[in-house]
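We modelled the chain as a single entity of 946 amino acids. Its sequence is:
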Amino acid sequence: MIAALRRFVSRRVGRRLFLLFIVSAFLPLAALAALSFMQLRDMLLQQGEQRLAATAKGYAMTLFERLLLASDVAAAAAGRGAGPPATGSLARLSLHSLARVEPDGRVVAVFGNPPLEPLAPAVRERIEEGKSVVTVKPATGGARVTITVPTTRGGEGAAVAEILPEYLWQPELFPTETDFCVLEEKSRVMLFCSTKIPDDVLAATVPAPSEVPSALLATRWLRDGEPQRSIAWTQFLRYAFETPDWVVVASQPESFQLARLLEYQHIYVPVVLLALLIVGWLTIRQARSIVGPVVQLAARARGISRNDFESRVEMDRQDEFGELASAFNQMSSQLGRQFAALTALSEIDRLILSTPDTAQVVRTVLERMRAVVPAHFIGVTLFDHDAPGHAHSYFSETNSTEGLAYARATLRTEDYELLGRNPDGAWVALVPGSRGILGVLAERGLKVAYIQPIVWRDVPCGALALGYRDETSGGDEERRQARDFADRVAVAVSSAWRDEQLYQQAHFDPLTGLPNRLLLKDRLTQEIARGQREQRRFALLFIDIDRFKNVNDTLGHTAGDAVLAEAGRRIQGCVRDSDTVARLGGDEFTVILTNVHDPQDAGHVAEEIVAMLSESFEIDGQSTFLSASVGIVAYPEDGTTAEDLLRNADTAMYRAKAAGRATVVFFEETMNAEAVSRLMLDRDLRQAITKGEIAMHYQPLLDLRTGVVCGAEALMRWNHPEHGPIPPARFVPVAEESGFIDELGRFALDEACARMKAWRAEGLPVKRVSVNVSPRQLRKVGIVALVQQAADGAGIPHECLEIEITEGLLIEHADSVEGLLRGLSASGVKIALDDFGTGFSSLAYLNRFPIDTIKIDRVFIDGLGYKRDSEAIVVAIIAMSHALGKSVTAEGVESAAQLEMLTEFGCDSIQGYFVGRPMPAAEFVAFVRNRAPEKATAPILPFLSR
């Protein structure tokens, strides 16, 4: 060959032909190769930019979802009031620290080391609106992201949580070869960056706040000599979190986006070189016949540059020119299929990003594969994850004019085994009578099929099938293209299923499967709109399971969850399919009864629900009996908005509980007024101490043996600036319900101890001061230390302080309070049993507990003088108490006759209006000094008559 070439170029004609070959064949082919290569490179870079933009957007949306989840977790963890969440809980996994903002503005740490500064006015104003606030503070290596969320309606309480960086950014989940940086749009503060990006690149990539994110272009830059591509996406946060928008910058190596170009280069370059070698050899061998074939080949090359892959080089020759033409035609067909496949895949990628409709993606896949893959049958089967064992099949026959078809398929065990054994695809011989995913192919007389599994998260979720009537059909190229299309379908399926899963998580209760509060409000709003449009009425039932806490306390939370799930099923069984049953949280359920003609119909349904929930719950072989309280509102009589209806139904439910539970109550406007009044009273009460509206009054306690005022009972009084004096019977129950009674109890202890210290310093003959302690406060851990701390802080002996408890506390919580009472008694604090005789009095309680004083209830004192049974009871109580070594105090003494009889019965001391009303501290001191007898043994009646 070398000798022939030497002989050829040694001649002038040969040299001219060789130069002509160089000019007419080699240069055009080289230019065509370079042009095609550059066009393909530009197209791949454009597709890479689109995918990179989608990745940046997806990561930005993920950050937004994590902020939402963190706000819900912080609100739930701070609002429970049960102390720090357990290790391994969602709060510990997502939050670095958490603090609770009390309604009075105090910031209390729940766990971690949160900042305890009061909320800024702007943040407090937004929290009162029921909205969350995200705050970003620069820090070494990133930024600290803090979220403030309301925990109660009206913004009385809030939670401040610092989000864990590893939870928010999660760099371990980044896509392959992709880096992210997140910065604040307005201030350009860097929040997080998985890799260093130069400032000038960020300045060129990140848009100005006025630019539209979708109009951004990628920025090209170098890292260690390697080209990189970066693109930014702006995530809107101002409305949801009142913070400047975040900008997500996603970066990828340019080589990662051009990975497919290498595959193309390995095919294209050898083919072009082969063509040049063949043309050169034929030029040497057949100089006279070279011009025609070269012209044809050059024309065909220009057609390829115009994306014309259908035309062919017609050259019927049995020599090298014929082979070259055949190779060129084959290359053109292969390039055509590759370009068609790339175009189809690009279109599918755009479709996946733009629509969650999996069926539309499948239809596009089938349409494009018909033009790319020379199969007689193309089908896509998707498993129905809501109905295991069933699938949807979409298919198309190349020779059919009917277009796409659809059929349902029943899956067999063999189908799952086939896909599981062959994750990379398999050829399957078809036989008549095949079922499952092969049934559609066998029914059409196909002989062989290539089955490519569609895999999501390593689990088959469908299959792509190529069917052939000839057993020798099909090749590697078809298999490779089938895998590419199957991957795209898997992405579409995963996206649709993920969206469906997110919807389920956002709108349905995971325990019962019922709609949650969010979906309930949406359906309630729709029902209100339908009622306004069609003049239809409906009713809303608010259901609360009575004493459900006992189930969790006695049987455990697992049993409690089972009871809630069973309760939801029973409630659903009492209503129609058109009605909505929802779980608001805890043991609260709601029911929307549509198209109700008479509110009494809703009452009948509610009574049926109460009856069903009153039946036995069988949990782990144990029978548990519960009941339910139901509040009912009717639209439009009891409210015209979702919030009004829910609030009024809640009010009616609490009225049902107050009526004795297991009761159905309809809402009335008076209930709402009372609820609002109690809410305002609770709000004002929480500020009354700091405003100086709460004061302690003291009622004197008279020793009947000496006539000396030996003690005083501290009683709380509230002088409201607008409503005037509010009796304790009004505000104490409100404080008990809201939990503010603990704060009031601490205030009463501190004030009484401080007053006792002043009396001792003034030489007042008062031996002790009595303070009432609520059952809630006494049952709390640390009450012993709290009482001792109050006495020690005032510097008075513990014997000067007396704690008054009710008889009902001993009966209902005997085991839990016995240790606390013994601890108080051991420290020297006196204990008085108040209102004795009104409950289930028992000598066993008096003998069991360390009680120093028995206070006879005024109901028996009132009967002295005209009720013999009252006299007998008083005499018995005094005798019984003295026998047990207890002192006796009579309450509510209001006459001299009562005083004489109590003195005769041997009572130790008395208190009541006959001795003195509750009075401010200064008046009490004057009362004691002005009326103190000159001698301890002076008659009592003259003393009182002064």
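As a brief sanity check on the tokenised model: Residues 259-341 form one domain. The CA atoms of residues 221 and 228 lie 5 Å apart.
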